[in-house]
Amino acid sequence: xxxxxxxxxxxxxxxxxxxxxxxxxxxxxxxxxxxxxxxxxxxxxxxxxxxxxxxxxxxxxxxxxxxxxxxxxxxxxxxxxxxxxxxxxxxxxxxxxxxxxxxxxxxxxxxxxxxxxxxxxxxxxxxxxxxxxxxxxxxxxxxxxxxxxxxxxxxxxxxxxxxxxxxxxxxxxxxxxxxxxxxxxxxxxxxxxxxxxxxxxxxxxxxxxxxxxxxxxxxxxxxxxxxxxxxxxxxxxxxxxxxxxxxxxxxxxxxx
Length: 256
Ligand code: ZN
Fold this sequence. Notes:
This protein is of the alpha+beta class. It is built from ten helices and eleven strands. It has a five-stranded antiparallel beta sheet with strand order 1-2-3-4-5. A hairpin with a 5-residue loop joins strand 4 (54-57) and strand 5 (63-65). Helix 3 (67-75) crosses helix 4 and helix 5 (101-128) crosses helix 8. The protein starts with a helix and ends with a helix. The structure holds zinc ion (ZN).
């Protein structure tokens, strides 16, 4: 484990110098930009905002985050590995905090849960941007309430009206279904088969202060009488409703 002050020092770095170590950024107005390293394109839609410490791809990724999220995606590595890489490359000294094996099991579990939430977030955003009619309806609903850049930057997504959309996506990525079930992203039926928990809902990611997704608030789009308007992620080591209430509250308030 790495102490939190190291993470704060990383957030104090100019994000353009971190990302500039991976791609050739060009200064343009108040942003830096380049062709997105995560999808193929000829005109740059990848922007870096030094003032906010954020990057965003306005092209087909429709995804963004902080410097750590960039390195995680670039190197396909965990949060802690990305923190270590950035610290090493930018002369930030850190000490590994010794962990008992019990703590280590716990933090490995948390990492697996963050990965599962990130995977679900990827699926919801992908589904939100599909060309089909239900995705179109979801976008129309979202863009009626907020402006487009808010929707994209927040990472508002869509859980399609399907019993196995996320399930099949997770399987195709080789994700641990046990972890997804523990986060109640999928559930087990009485016949012991898995199904998607969020269906026909707009998904609003709830994040921690490092911008990692810890859970979701999901708004029903069917207006069916017997369905709760909002569903939240189940309690987990990442997500405690009582502590995360502010996040849920903000998410839902913005969702109105
Ligand atoms: Zn992209």
